[in-house]
Amino acid sequence: MRKLVVAFVVLAGFAGLIGVGAVTALLVGSGGRGAGWSACSAYLGPWGDGAGRGERDAATLNEESIGIVRRIIEIGKQRGLPPRAWQIAIQAGKTESNLRNIHYGDRDSLGIFQMRPSMGWGTPQQITDVDYAINKFYDVLLAVPGWEEMRPGTAAQRVERSAFPLRYHRWEPMAAYLVSVEGDVPGISACDGLPRASVLAAQAIQYAQAQLGKPYVWGAAGPHAFDCSGLTQQAWKAAGVEIPKYSQTQYFQGGVHVPLSQAQPGDLVFWGYGRDPNSIHHVALYLGDNEVLHAPQPGESVEVTKLWDGGELLPTVVRPAADTPQPPSPAPAAEGQR
Length: 338
Known about the structure:
disordered C terminus; hydrolase; two-stranded antiparallel ribbon; 8 strands; thiol protease; endopeptidase fold (from Nostoc punctiforme); elongated; 4-stranded antiparallel beta sheet; alpha+beta
């Protein structure tokens, strides 16, 4: 497996040098060993623009945010935690507060990670103390079974327990870019650690093809009837990938955004009034060769048809991505063990 290699250079006078955009001068690659994150985050990231996005996103951090990132890494090192833990904390902090120690939030949420006193995270004074909040985040992370093997955004969600679980993936390239390590960062942050899209897509399509002829029922998600988003959700679930139920939510939270012109089999194709993503009303599974498989509307059945426009076809498709690595292939048995 190729390993993600990123380096974080800590220089004298670090805090005084940082301003908007200045962080790029302090962050450098590893000199080409292994696969750089930016080379593959376009495949995994939620918007399909990963090439260089980690560096660009890092360049927008202000002095407060850089100080918090630095403290996340320092405390992680002090506790002997691996770089994966630092990356998870950075992604969670960026998602929840834009890496700021804020004194407001949804209901009683406060601080970097928007912890809630009412949910047992600590007192308001504690959770707005940077060191306390970081240590508390790490404490809860370490109690999550198998967190080391999860995609970092998935592990962040297990700690935060958000109603929007896929949003933590947005900052994966940036967090990986900021991670400090003296050597390689092992694990599934590298491209090859996750199942390839073509393998998963084939499994999703196989499931969907087995549903041909079943009736459309609004709100149904199988096994005897489907609506449009129920079919796409269950098809990708059969491939081991969880995506949301509703078509509009699948567009915004279902995976990688890719131009329609680059659609591959298994991608989700959408229609919305005026081509507006906020007006999406239908989704289908792209099969290739300008064909889609979908559950059309009441009174009709799951079918394969040519891709149509009608002034509503969105120019962007969604490619769901796996959250967990493939299980290792069993080693071939020795001759005497067969």
